[in-house]
Write a structure and sequence with these properties.
Layout: E1 2-6, H1 18-32, E2 36-42, H2 45-48, E3 57-66, E4 69-81, E5 84-90, H3 92-95, H4 111-129, E6 133-139, H5 146-157, E7 162-169, E8 177-179, E9 199-200, E10 203-205, H6 206-213, E11 216-219, H7 222-227, H8 231-234, H9 238-243, E12 248-250, H10 278-290, E13 301-308, H11 314-319, H12 321-326, E14 330-337, H13 339-351, E15 356-359, H14 364-373, E16 376-379, H15 389-395, E17 399-403, H16 406-411, E18 425-427, H17 431-446, H18 448-459, H19 465-477
The structure holds adenosine-5'-diphosphate and alpha-D-glucopyranose (GLC).
Length: 480
Amino acid sequence: MKIVHVASELFPYVKTGGLADAVGSLATTLAGRGHEVAVFLPGYRAVLEHPEATKAERRLRLRIEMGDRYFTGEVWAFSPRKNLTIYLICRDELFDRRGLYGNGERDYEDNFHRFLYFQKGVIEALRLLGLNADVVHCHDWQTGLLPLLLRYTERRQGMTLAVTTVFTIHNIAFQGLFPMRSYHRTNLPDEFKGIEGVEFYGQLSMMKGGLIYADRITTVSPHYAQEIQTPLFGCGLEGVVASRAEDLSGLINGIDTDVWNPAKDRLIPARYSVTDLSGKAKCRAELLSVMKLAATDDTPIYGMVCRLAEQKGIDLLLANQDFFLRENVRLLVLGSGEKRYENALQSLVTAAPDKIALATRLDEKMSHWIEAGSDFFVMPSLFEPCGLNQMYSQAYGTVPLTSRVGGLSDTVIDADQAPAAGTGLTYPATAAGLRDALQRSQKLFADRARYAEVQRRGMERDFSWATAAQGYQRLYEGSL
Ligand code: ADP
Ligand code: GLC
């Protein structure tokens, strides 16, 4: 099949979160299965500076209608592997910036213009390149208007650009809401403007566009597919999602087993596998040393790697700070994001510098070290569409402590509730729930044989994209 993905992030070129990992692995896996895969990405500075992208060649010049003006641009392309082409929609004024969505303080003020330009650029490229896609698969709000723009272009020009359009929700909390006065830049007729169309409480919602106009909708876990049809998790779009329930599938992400595999991982100090965990002990020792902490073998190490955002349950962690300050445990956090959380975590380090360590930066290598060197991985998310780190943790023999939401519910089995099948500890997403799990984890760690069993079962699970991509293939073929 000819499969076109459109996304605003793609590992290994540009990443702020799991979206990049998910799109990167899905595209690579589909290409590996013999499909002809293209991925469209904004020509961000970070991508253009990536060593592989220096091979890119200019394929097209663009002239994009945005309201009553035209904006020029270019499409550059390179092919990192067989069957896979990355297309970059370039216009330096819009994408040659340090950040993807903002400057760290605030979102860029022209984000509507930037991502509308990107989506229109993709459609123009599909048309000019004559790609004749079987599927155009759009990811998250930055691509939400694309299914509508694509069908409208086809209608107006009497041509077919794609047989099927798919829209995947990676996180419904980010919706791409903009003032409705920008609508004219879409050059769409007013029939799509109202409450039956892209309007969301007087604003223009890019995500709502995807939810209404894509042929098929997916999200990244079965649990989240149910949750977003309820007010608690739907962020106001629950009614719209529920109205498309027939066309909605929850497909769990996989993990890239070339990148996240302790037997092959070159970013960690030693390699290991389920049959020989000695390398994990070395990773643990080196992790403690780089973090400037000391701990004996029976002192549990709790690791955490995440965006420092409310979603990730940092408040629940902070509500349990006395556990980390008083108990004989260690806590290592790698995360960047909201200043209030960075400051609160920094205060914890100041209170117990011999027990708690914090790194507030994006650090791919350190994220692998924490997965490899910790005994437990803490993930108390308030909501979690899929979540990747709980799967990485299981693959690395690091027992996850996950709240029972979204994809975490689909991928971690509680070892106290299911002693013969458990791979982690799960709890309601509350401070008390996390407290209970932390206490249970101490007991689990003290029982070395039981801990080793839980660890082994996690390592033996198959979270590979080879399995995960089958669902998408069936969806594309129309048999899901
Ligand atoms: P989300 O996409 O909501 O942030 P996921 O669990 O799907 O959550 O994916 C997060 C990804 O980002 C993981 O690959 C994780 O290792 C990575 N990550 C998060 N914070 C950092 C950081 N500070 N440094 C390196 N990688 C990070
Ligand atoms: C989003 C979600 C996360 C998910 C990722 C990849 O960023 O927050 O749960 O794993 O997308 O689908």
